[in-house]
Amino acid sequence: xxxxxxxxxxxxxxxxxxxxxxxxxxxxxxxxxxxxxxxxxxxxxxxxxxxxxxxxxxxxxxxxxxxxxxxxxxxxxxxxxxxxxxxxxxxxxxxxxxxxxxxxxxxxxxxxxxxxxxxxxxxxxxxxxxxxxxxxxxxxxxxxxxxxxxxxxxxxxxxxxxxxxxxxxxxxxxxxxxxxxxxxxxxxxxxxxxxxxxxxxxxxxxxxxxxxxxxxxxxxxxxxxxxxxxxxxxxxxxxxxxxxxxxxxxxxxxxxxxxxxxxxxxxxxxxxxxxxxxxxxxxxxx
Amino acid sequence: xxxxxxxxxxxxxxxxxxxxxxxxxxxxxxxxxxxxxxxxxxxxxxxxxxxxxxxxxxxxxxxxxxxxxxxxxxxxxxxxxxxxxxxxxxxxxxxxxxxxxxxxxxxxxxxxxxxxxxxxxxxxxxxxxxxxxxxxxxxxxxxxxxxxxxxxxxxxxxxxxxxxxxxxxxxxxxxxxxxxxxxxxxxxxxxxxxxxxxxxxxxxxxxxxxxxxxxxxxxxxxxxxxxxxxxxxxxxxxxxxxxxxxxxxxxxxxxxxxxxxxxxxxxxxxxxxxxxxxxxxxxxxxxxxxxxxxxxxxxxxxxxxxxxxxxxxxxxxxxxxxxxxxxxxxxxxxxxxxxxxxxxxxxxxxxxxxxxxxxxxxxxxxxxxxxxxxxxxxxxxxxxxxxxxxxxxxxxxxxxxxxxxxxxxxxxxxxxxxxxxxxxxxxxxxxxxxxxxxxxxxxxxxxxxxxxxxxxxxxxxxxxxxxxxxxxxxxxxxxxxxxxxxxxxxxxxxxxxxxxxxxxxxxxxxxxxxxxxxxxxxxxxxxxxxxxxxxxxxxxxxxxxxxxxxxxxxxxxxxxxxxxxxxxxxxxxxxxxxxxxxxxxxxxxxxxxxxxxxxxxxxxxxxxxxxxxxxxxxxxxxxxxxxxxxxxxxxxxxxxxxxxxxxxxxxxxxxxxxxxxxxxxxxxxxxxxxxxxxxxxxxxxxxxxxxxxxxxxxxxxxxxxxxxxxxxxxxxxxxxxxxxxxxxxxxxxxxxxxxxxxxxxxxxxxxxxx
Lengths: 286, 754
Hints:
The complex is a heterodimer of chains A (286) and B (754).
Chain A: E1 2-4, H1 9-18, E2 23-26, H2 32-37, E3 45-48, E4 58-60, E5 64-68, H3 73-77, H4 80-85, H5 87-93, H6 99-102, H7 107-112, H8 120-127, E6 130-135, E7 138-143, E8 148-150, E9 153-154, E10 161-168, E11 174-181, E12 192-200, E13 206-214, E14 221-222, H9 224-230, H10 237-250, H11 261-282
Parallel strand pairs in A: 1-3, 2-3
Antiparallel strand pairs in A: 4-5, 5-10, 6-7, 6-10, 8-9, 11-12, 12-13, 13-14
Helix pairs in contact in A: 5-8, 9-10, 10-11
Chain B: H1 24-29, E1 44-50, E2 56-62, H2 64-68, E3 72-76, H3 89-98, E4 103-104, E5 110-116, H4 119-128, E6 130-135, H5 142-146, E7 172-180, H6 183-189, E8 192-200, E9 212-217, E10 223-227, H7 232-243, E11 250-254, H8 269-280, E12 284-287, H9 290-296, E13 303-311, E14 317-327, H10 335-342, E15 352-359, H11 374-392, H12 396-403, H13 422-430, H14 433-436, E16 443-452, E17 457-465, E18 471-475, H15 483-495, E19 502-506, H16 523-550, E20 557-560, E21 563-566, E22 577-578, H17 579-584, H18 586-589, E23 593-601, E24 607-617, E25 624-634, H19 641-660, E26 691-696, H20 718-730, E27 736-737, H21 741-752
Parallel strand pairs in B: 1-12, 8-27, 10-11, 14-15, 18-19, 25-26
Antiparallel strand pairs in B: 1-5, 2-4, 2-6, 3-5, 7-15, 8-13, 9-10, 9-12, 13-14, 16-24, 17-18, 17-23, 20-21, 21-22, 24-25
Helix pairs in contact in B: 7-8, 10-11, 11-20, 12-13, 15-16, 19-20
């Protein structure tokens, strides 16, 4: 096994592109090291991206926020402006694992691990976040929901690295929220989850809305219909009921050790309702 | 044995105080040595190859490629552990469980093992071992295994305990029955009858420290084993028998223990590590991974229980009956039998009958888990008792008080009780402020009682007095819950010295006589009895030495408050001699001063507890949250009350996990789906409220200080208390443990849909 710690994204991309055997990218390592220790994977090359300039920073740009791929989730929680603009994304990132894990893990890693139950991903999808991908043929920016394609699989090509996640600047009257269901209070994995992102018009009616569900299908789901049903409403009871129904219907869950199909469908709807209510309140809705 | 164990009602000066724990600093600084912390020069890494199949014939094992891998020093299969059990069926099962001989009987069953110079090579070697399996149909569910169409796990097993000798082999290894009176007559007298069926899923003790040992076998037939265990003397016996060693030539040293709860009463990896060391000629360290601990150590039974209880309008139980089916894994056990004994032990019943069935399944061999078998029986019985109280329109506590066992009651499992604590714990609960605290919406309160036998057993203690007057206490019961502190308090009490003058250790098997393992809540009960005896023997010598120093008859010397005192006016000018004074002169008065004791500690007093639980249920998701929890339990005498409270809280915490989320989940393929702490959900700290405790002290008449075991009873009531709380919160009777959110939501939906 070879471990390298390149100083530039080009070097990292180059090493990954020419790797012959299985290769892995190391940021926080909270997924990678566990999988290696469990004997599930034995990479021949590990590319540690933490020393690459800019990857460990959160920067505010004219368009919003740029979160480097090596920024630990705990750092998101300490960034006041980010927390104020995107509280749902930050709370999702700060639900992953334990305090110790949050000091290492990254939202980019969470995205690239491609688990349908990843906590930060539904919040990022609802937020309309984008991923900056560096690869052998240059850079491109894609929607985060296009990254995971199946459990454990991504659309990234050989040699490609996500170097940052982009979040838009917030208008006034905007709010997002993320909720997950776990049987415990912490240090658990989502049985089902929901992220909601809203903006309101000057009268408090919902202007735009995005709803995403986690652990409800092989990949995180962007439920467009659920967003549409919210638009124009002030979250009255009938709208919330329709929201729950649409979310339950959009799920393609499985029966497994963490929950049943019926449970996931039902709770997906409940969580979407509750997350919508929190996002609405955060946006200034009454 | 010239020792009177009867309770005397003496006043205490050390016992009942709360000094700092002697192992605390080592444990919080990481200096304490657990099973995996022992290392030897030249030590190899042992790893075990495990069956991926729930049930399969092992047609052949080819280890040749693994043996050729550079760095591999030994590869073993069952051939390297020949059968030396000489017709001892229980030992044969232990052998077969350590290393499968002809069939793999569960997912995780050991089939081969390697010792290599490092972990990587050991892992590679496992991949090079070729096992040819013939996969057989399997059964993992306790009810399905009883069905006569179920795959047979062992075709040589015929159900014991039936009136007619069976002609067909069965997965039911034994039927047992307890009780007295006539239940048919009793039910005929009842105005109200509750009859229900319950299920509990299999749980694991969940100790944080995985099984770990270092084995070193020498060519001269001697061997050493350093191991994390609840009973190093028992491990010695078993390993010596399985390996063909002489017991006294195998020295077993127990490490600090990171939890056992019954799960470290059984050998698995230890005979394998010894066999690897014997073959490799080098020491071998074998540490199980968490995955291996779940798949291949000893979880508790899954159960299926039917209960029927009848009562008259005035709240008198007229009859009680239960049928209990407990899974044993693939080897016979007596788990349902224990469940059948404990089921109605809290009550004074005229007509009672319990029947237990031991059931083989393709799951790991069941081992003890804290008051083994009692929590599931209590769940079923206490749920039915609660429901019956509701039907009668009686308060659930009053109903239990009316029917509680008391001194002189004939227990449902046979014996007649002496002084017991069930009534007092119920009265304490009735008067506890928790019972009167208001509840909010979606909250429910439940309470339940629990019983455990407790155990005494073989015990040996050495007490040695140093020339500086300090005292070392060597005990043979592994300290799983603070016994070193408690036993030091007891020795300080007897000798009349300060706790700080004492140091207690757990001696290895070559330094002390045989001790049964720390199970049955016996550690402090039995070793305190032996410590009292050893201290009294030392006091005899101390008095004799004082008599020599004074040149007076020993009969004129008494021992009081840590001093020898010359009794009588004629000795008025002799000032008392302290233990320290006498110890300082010991070299010239007859040599070292020590007290020894070996005894069978009989008369372990039975133990009762009553718990109260408040729970909040989210009706939209089935999520639960324990809001408040109170444990009331009889300790006989709490030697170190802080540790006793810790035992009460620990049992409740484990019971809460079991009741709400913990369970073994098997796939259709017979493989365990959740062999890790992510998906086997024990409670995390933030899941639990501070658990309140109340210690009652109803002295055990068979112990000089009145001590009863306290470690296990606390896990008996929680399943039922929580089930009653959830049922009261949501208005639906919960009958399947764990009450995970999907189960609660499904029960609520079924109720809503009518």
